[in-house]
Specification:
It is built from 28 helices and 15 strands. By secondary structure, the protein is of the alpha/beta class. It has a nine-stranded mixed sheet with strand order 8-5-4-3-9-14-13-15-10, with helices on both faces. It has a two-stranded antiparallel sheet with strand order 1-2. It has a two-stranded antiparallel ribbon with strand order 6-7. Strand 3, helix 16 and strand 4 form a beta-alpha-beta unit.
């Protein structure tokens, strides 16, 4: 806690009163000063080097420069490399330091008043004093790293200039100069490992207001999520031309009037849905429809072939989509979803089940699933995470086949052994019996994967299902709040399950159900992480190498751009992600028609609203042969074409205009390759 009666607090207030600040851009004076100071330091070092080579005894200031020149040179070069960011900062408008960033002038005066020493507490006190008189923007505090280095190099250059001009010859002056140089070198050495986030938190008025969040959520958020709030406040202040502290204070006052966790969270009033993004989304769709139409019209005017111009609309659409989304990615900033960061792990009220949907065909497959679950356990260990398989037997002409009892016994024994080996029974088996399918004319797991997940949710809720074999801790399963569903070829990264759960737990991501429409209208019932291709499968065959690209994980945890998430606040579900059990069960149970949905992921994602957690990454395998690749594509095409019926048919499910557009766009994407080939054949045949 900063004491307001401290010397540095008062010093900061006095300094702020003397410095006149405007929002004119600095005229590169800071860079010139740092370069000039570096030259002065280099000259001093050369002089010390010459004296040392001659065997002359070095004065103490020269000794310090001779021994520590590399530290100063490195800090100066680092400051110069990061100098571009300082050109946007508010500048001093009057006096000797006119044109320099105001935060640089404050920092230099602080260092000079503290014998050229950088100290976190006194610096925070000083900046708090300044902010009693003048606003310091968040952007200025974010750049303190380069500003402090630049100020120390400037002061070191000033001392070196005095030493070179003979002022260091006087013993008293030499002692003072040596003390200043020592303090500067020690400060530069400290700054090389110092985390400026600590100083930001102590000095920022905005941060103190955010930490006063009545819900207590902000203090438990991840650093990346906190950065989003700070950035949003900064942008709002620029747009409205108001102090950042005023924006944060108004958000805090609104939160203090809230009645529930969501309305009492300060972020509710900072991350408001923006009309300009919805407008950009409307423009995006308008351009996607218009530009291909104009190109098709040009084609008709050029070659007078109506059939060709209609066929070419689809490939034109795909080309225009790539170009438009390229520019959209440049114009629309990417933000990850807000996330908590709970040091003690997943809380007891957020028990999570990670489940792999599998088809049991042999005992060898069971051993493979066991090994995969154990890898999941070691990479995402938490007392409130259970790992399981949701299993079906392969389709059959009868309710039971000869191998069922042997495979069932192997499964039960395997899971019992695993739960005895590990503490807290972290593994679970859910095995469904077959039912007769009229559409398929055989016995199979009800509704395949869609039915498996639906029945798993019913099982968790204590309702009747075709799951006739269960192994695991039933008490834990009955308290499961989230289900992470993956495929048998999906790989989880370390702590990816926790990250998904922590994102779901943030109140701004909690789903809000419109009971009249029967869908989620705010927040998310599902979160979809980024899914990349597994590097091993991408390199498995020549076909995979050509079609899958490089594969592997992204070593940078930055949020990836998703057009729908960035423009409309929701994305598409592709079958691998985290589900809110209560929300998905309430919205989806007995809602979708039976035996008529093959590509169920996008339909479910539209009903419960899918958020894209682009900074959380999973990997998935890629088909290794052309036959597997085209079989998969065939299923997707059939499913996406079937889904077109939901655009026109009214039933239990309400689909928003955006959901209908996404369903239509999915079908359009699947049809484009075939239509492009037809267009090519038409061109050849028509001459």
């Amino acid at each position: 806690m900063i004491e307001n009666d401290s010397f540095f607090y008062t010093f900061g207030k006095n300094v702020a009163g003397d410095v006149k600040v405007s929002h004119i851009k600095p005229v590169n004076k800071l860079e010139a000063e740092v370069r000039g100071s570096l030259r002065m330091i280099q000259e001093t070092y050369k002089k010390a080097l010459e004296d040392a080579q001659k065997g002359n005894r070095l004065l103490v200031p020269y000794e310090w420069i001779y021994d520590n020149y590399h530290i100063a040179a490195k800090a100066a070069k680092m400051a110069l490399m990061q100098m571009a960011a300082t050109k946007r900062l508010p500048a001093v408008s009057e006096g000797e330091r006119r044109g320099f960033p105001a935060i640089y002038v404050y920092t230099r005066l602080y260092l000079k008043g503290n014998s050229c020493r950088f100290e976190e507490d006194s610096m925070a006190q000083f900046l708090s004093g300044v902010q009693e008189i003048k606003e310091i923007k968040s952007e200025e505090l974010w750049n303190l790293s380069v500003i402090c280095r630049a100020a120390l190099i400037s002061l070191l250059g000033e001392v070196c200039d005095e030493v070179l001009n003979g002022e260091g010859a006087n013993p008293e002056n030499a002692q003072n100069s040596a003390r200043y140089i020592e303090n500067i070198i020690k400060s530069l050495r400290e700054l090389s490992t110092y985390e400026f986030d600590d100083l930001y938190k102590k000095a920022s008025v905005v941060e103190k207001l955010l930490l006063a969040d009545p819900s207590g959520i902000y203090g438990n958020m991840s650093e990346s999520s906190k950065s989003i709030y700070r950035y949003k406040i900064c942008e709002m202040a620029k747009k409205l031309r108001l102090p950042e502290s005023k924006i944060a204070r108004e958000a805090l006052e609104q939160a203090q009037k809230g009645k529930d966790e969501r309305s009492r969270h300060i972020g509710t009033y900072i991350l408001k849905e923006k009309k300009e993004n919805r407008l950009k989304g409307s423009v995006y769709i308008f351009l996607l429809v218009l530009l291909p139409f104009l190109l098709s019209a040009w084609t008709y005017g050029y070659c007078d072939d109506l059939v060709l111009s209609v066929l070419l609309y689809f490939p034109y659409f795909e080309i225009c989509k790539i170009i438009i989304e390229y520019f959209a990615a440049k114009l629309v900033p990417v933000f990850g979803l807000p996330r908590l960061d709970l040091k003690e792990g997943i809380p007891d009220n957020a028990k999570t089940l990670v489940v792999i949907s599998v088809l049991i065909t042999s005992a060898g497959k069971i051993a493979d699933f066991k090994n995969k679950l154990e890898r999941f356990y070691y990479s995402n260990r938490d007392k409130n995470i259970t790992f399981g398989i949701l299993a079906d037997f392969k389709d059959s002409a009868a309710p039971e086949s000869d191998s069922d009892s042997m495979l069932k016994e192997t499964l039960i024994n395997t899971f019992n052994a695993m739960n005895q080996q590990y503490q807290n029974e972290p593994f679970a088996l859910f095995l469904r019996s077959r039912v007769y399918s009229k559409t398929e004319n055989k016995y199979m797991g009800w509704e395949r994967k869609r039915g498996a997940i639906a029945e798993l949710l019913r099982f968790i809720k204590g309702e009747g299902t075709t799951i006739d074999t269960f192994v695991g801790n039933k008490a834990n399963i009955s308290k499961v709040r989230y289900v992470v569903t993956v495929d048998s070829d999906t790989n989880l990264r370390i702590d990816s399950v926790r990250q998904l759960v922590f994102t779901m737990l943030h109140p701004l991501n909690h789903a809000v159900i419109d009971n009249k429409k029967g869908i989620v209208t705010d927040g998310y019932g599902i979160l979809q992480p980024r899914v990349d291709t597994d590097i091993n499968s991408a390199q498995k065959t020549r076909f995979a190498k050509i079609m899958a690209g490089l594969g592997g994980i992204d070593t940078y945890d930055n949020a990836s751009f998703d057009i729908y998430q960035s423009l409309f606040g929701e994305g598409n579900f592709c079958g691998k992600g985290i589900l809110d059990v209560d929300v998905c069960h309430k919205v989806l149970d007995n809602t979708l028609p039976e035996g008529r949905i093959l590509s169920h992921d996008i339909i479910e994602g539209c009903c419960v609203r899918t958020g894209i957690a682009g900074d959380i990454e999973l990997t998935d395998s890629f088909p290794s042969t052309p036959s597997a690749y085209f079989d998969r594509n065939h299923r997707w095409i059939r499913g996406d074409i079937q889904n077109l019926a939901f655009i026109f048919k009214k039933g239990k499910v309400y689909f928003s205009p955006l959901s209908k557009w996404k369903i239509a766009d999915n079908a359009r994407r699947e049809l484009t390759p075939a239509i492009s080939v037809i267009a090519l054949i038409w061109c050849i045949l028509s001459g």
